[in-house]
Design brief:
The protein has 157 residues and is an alpha+beta fold. The chain is 27% helix and 42% strand. An 8-stranded antiparallel β-sheet has the order 4-3-2-1-8-7-6-5, sandwiched between helices. A hairpin with a 2-residue loop joins β7 and β8.
């Protein structure tokens, strides 16, 4: 059975230093995908815009600038409030989103209690799956036999 940790949150889409618009979002963490976080942005269309990136990136980004390429995260202050900024880039465009640091940190702490850092791979069951895959079966004996016996006769026949 898998656990899901979710949080509805209102982010701000920063359009300019003077202007931002609210964007409802859902932060999701699933133990069946333990390395990732998922964010669904509800932008007033029929389908939300979904982003998935490393949980570790957001955990680090709450404390210091990190990331490169498509996702960059860093903490800052806006009007005296602690916020986390997320810069997202895709072929469809770029977005700068502002999230309240306290709410993001509290949600991340919940995810870290469910799956502590360093134990993510255990959630995937890769070792168990490989062991099951590599366990010999009776059919393996047939498979390993030579299906075409040698043309050479035994004992000089």
């Amino acid at each position: 059975m898998h656990t899901v940790v979710e949080r509805e949150l209102e982010l701000k889409l920063v359009l300019s230093p003077e202007r931002a618009i609210p964007v409802p979002a859902r932060l999701s963490y699933r133990t069946d995908d333990p390395f990732a976080i998922h964010i669904a942005f509800h932008i007033g269309t029929e389908h939300p815009v979904n982003w998935t990136f490393a949980r570790e990136l957001l955990v680090e980004g709450v404390f210091r600038p990190c990331g490169h390429g498509d996702v960059r995260v860093w903490p800052t202050k806006v009007d005296g409030r602690s916020v986390v900024l997320m810069a997202l880039s895709s072929p469809d465009g770029d977005a700068l989103l502002e999230a309240p640091a306290a709410a993001v940190s509290a949600w991340l702490e919940r995810t870290l209690r469910v799956v502590p850092p360093g134990s993510e791979a255990e959630q995937l069951g890769i070792d168990d799956g490989l062991a099951a895959l590599l366990t010999p079966t009776p059919a393996d004996d047939l498979w390993l036999r030579d299906p075409w016996p040698s043309d050479e006769s035994k004992d000089g026949e």
